[in-house]
Amino acid sequence: MLAKVRSCALLGIDGIPLEIEVDIADGLPAFDIIGLPDASVREAKERVRAAIRNCGFIFPYSRVTVNLAPADLKKEGSSFDLAIAVGLLAATGQIPGNGAVEEGVFIGELSLDGKLRGINGTLAMALTLSKYDGYRDTTIFLPAANSTEAALVDSIYIKPVNTLKDLAEYLNGTGSLPTAKPLEPNTDQENNSELDFNEVRGQETAKRSLEIAAAGSHNALLYGPPGSGKTMLARRLPTILPAPTREEVLDMTRIHSVAGQLKPDSPLLQLRPFRSPHHSASTAGIIGGGKVPRPGEISLAHLGVLFFDELPEYRREVLEALRQPLEDKVVTVTRAAATITYPADFMFIGSMNPCPCGNYGDPQQECRCSPPQIFKYRSKLSGPLIDRIDIQVEVPGIKYEQLERDSSNGETSALIRSRVEKTRELQRERYKKIKVGANSALRSRHFEKYCPLSREARQLLHQSFQSLKLSMRAHDRIIKVARTIADLEDADTIGSSHIAEAVQYRSLDRRD
Fold first, then answer.
1. Closest to 239 measured CA to CA, from 199, 197, 186
2. What is the 3-state secondary structure of 400-454?
3. Is residue 293's pLDDT more than 80?
4. How far apart (Å, rounded) are the C-alpha atoms in residues 110 and 82?
5. CB 165 within 8 Å of CB 86
6. pLDDT at 359 over 90
7. What is the overall mean pLDDT for the chain?
8. Is 313 helix (H, G, I), strand (E, B) or coil?
9. What is the CA radius of gyration of the chain?
10. Positive or negative, the Cα torsion across 244, 246, 250, 256?
């Protein structure tokens, strides 16, 4: 007796359709799973056996062979339990082997009593299956805990299942299962965030720099003495970013689903992610890795913000590993088991002190560091990494008199976000033919058409390049930032004032 059931496996953040073949033959009782299963897949034998019996069905006292096809793909995880159990029930005639069994897709982990537990990556699987011929308009049977995220995918029907017995009754025509309805994301930043820019006293230059960073999706570095508000400013950056579109919500949620980062009570990412890993994090934790590569922090920050507090405290190899993703917006992780490319289109925000004690250049505090200590501290950040940070701005300490003067609330995040969204929309319309989302993604070949400079601006840029001894990468970053500053003023041509302000945000190029 032979039954075939469709399922799905994960490779990176993409699903791969599988066919589960279950054969029951005469012979000594045995239960074998073949097709390159790992330990967690082989353990499915005991879970499936107990679940079938505890749901009142008969487990065959025969030789059972389960093949996971294609056989040349390494299988891992517990998401094949449900498909194997359905195949066994169909092969033994306890449920019909045609109809929904042949046409549906079965994904889920079984507990010993037959209940279905939630798994990782169901949204990624549903998105992939919806693009395959033969899987459009099909029905996916999966744990009820995963139904909300998977139901976001169009052209796929999701049937949430609580127990194996409920599913068998539905397939036998004696029971019913509901069809999950998608939960539309609520991306209203104002209602979802407790942080607001009007809580920040003073620091108008830093606020302006972060508005420019948000408007053009630029990377930024904030440096200054302890307690000046660097972390406070960085944590409020997501509140002025444009609300994510439905497609971006799917993209962000898919990555977090694969990584197992979704909360049970919040199966969708409503806002852009803000990731702030500890400085002790490993390279694999930041970039991604493992025996079978999993998404790292830079992928979990996709379409959001990655914040490194106290930047020089991170390991040198971690910081240098950021260089390629900051340029390419993707990261390729190679391991013996697989080579996987993850998206990594994030805004990088770093903060640092000017020296180990934090008081160098502060008129209110005396620096206790020697010149060699300061040099060693700053040299932890390589020139190529600094070059990739568009905006570098000093956040000085605030005097008490200034706190009193700025006691009234400043601009709210909603007001700043309205300007940012207007500027982003201008950029999307301008770059729709070249499929560039923001100024930071422009290439040098685009400058002549999209970044026209006035005569005075060109002269100022030339003088700055010579006097500051800038690299070509820094030169290009200045033009991109100036383009964003001009966009905020709704100016078609980049003027000298825009270049001057952009050059001012290359502070570390000008420090002694």
1. 197
2. HHHHHHCCCCCCCHHHHHHHHHHHHHHHHHHCCCCCCCCHHHCCHHHHHHHCCEC
3. yes
4. 6
5. no
6. no
7. 90
8. helix
9. 28
10. positive
304, 452, 486 from 456: Cα distances, Å: 36, 12, 15
Three-state DSSP state, 17: strand
Ordered by start, the domain boundaries in the chain are 2-171, 189-409
Paired with 306 in beta bridges are: 275, 348
Residue type, 330: V
Which alpha helices (DSSP H) does 2-140 contain, by range? 39-42, 44-54, 81-91, 100-103, 122-129
Question: Rounded distance, CA 446 to CA 181, Å?
Answer: 43
Q: pLDDT tens across 436-460, in order?
A: 889 999 999 999 999 999 999 999 9
Measure the CA–CA gap between 129 and 118, rounded to whole angstroms.
19
Residue 31: both structure tokens together: 């239960």
Residue 371 sits at φ, ψ, to 5 deg, of -55, -40
Q: Residue 250 contacts by C-beta under 8 Å, 6 or more apart in sequence?
A: 123, 127, 152, 153
Residues 448 and 439: their CA atoms lie apart, in Å, by 14
CATH topology classification for 2-171: Ribosomal Protein S5; domain 2 (3.30.230)
Residue 512 has pLDDT above 50, yes or no: no
CB 285 within 8 A of CB 297: yes
- Reading the block at residue 492, the tokens are 């078609």
CA distance 68 to 79: 12
How far apart are the C-alpha atoms of 37 and 74, rounded to whole Å?
Answer: 6
Two tokens at 291?
């025996």
Neighbours of 473 (CB within 10 A): 15
Residue appearing with tokens 């700053």: 378
User: Distance between CA atoms of 279 and 128, rounded to whole angstroms?
Assistant: 35
66, two tokens:
């389960």
Percent of the chain with pLDDT over 70: 95
**Residue 23 · residue 1 · CB < 8 Å:** yes
Q: Which fold has domain 189-409?
A: Rossmann fold (3.40.50)
- What is the enclosing helix (H) or strand (E) of 494? none
